[in-house]
Amino acid sequence: MNARSEATLTLEAVAKHFVHWRRKKTNGERIPEELWNQALTLLGTYGISQVSRTLRLSYTELDKRRKAIEAGRSRQGSGDDTAFVEIDRALVDQAPEPGAAAVWMELERPDGLRLRIRATHGVEMLALLDRFMGA
Questions:
Q1: What is the pTM of this model?
Q2: Dihedral angle at the C-alpha atoms of 32, 37, 43, 47, nearest 10 degrees?
Q3: SS (H, E, C) 27-86
Q4: Do residues 11 and 50 lie in contact, with contact meaning Cβ atoms separated by under 8 Å?
Q5: What's the gap between Cα 65 and its chain centre?
Q6: CA separation for the pair 131, 60 (Å, rounded)
Q7: Can you tell me the mean pLDDT for 35-64?
Q8: pLDDT (0 to 100) of residue 3
Q9: Any idea where the domains of the chain sit in the sequence?
Q10: How far is CA 108 from CA 32, 73, 76, 105, 112, in A?
Q11: Helices 11-24, 33-42: crossing angle, 10 deg rounding
């Protein structure tokens, strides 16, 4: 659905879409994502209770989907405080001694798994980094 048609959506129009879908659906068929998206678009204009009642949707499911979208937006916006830092393998040997002041490194993979380690010397650290990052 394009932005132009989303701007013209009203609760009544989306309710008609749901009525049409319910007439032709088969038993046990799930609500299509397009209809869920239309319902979620309405939440900027109408309250969640009004939308869920009018469209005969589960309040809980509609709220869960709304929260998932909001969580996705906040995750996208939170990238400002992190930065990519390339590890120069030539400098790894210059890592401080294990007994020196605490120097921590925190790594995060694309799947969200994090590793926080103290810097160590050369090959051990590189092997750990390669293994963690899946290289």
A1: 0.51
A2: 0
A3: CCCCCCHHHHHHHHHHCCCCCHHHHHHHCCCCHHHHHHHHHHHHHHHHHHHHHHHCCCCC
A4: yes
A5: 12
A6: 41
A7: 93
A8: 46
A9: 3-79, 83-133
A10: 34, 19, 15, 10, 6
A11: 160
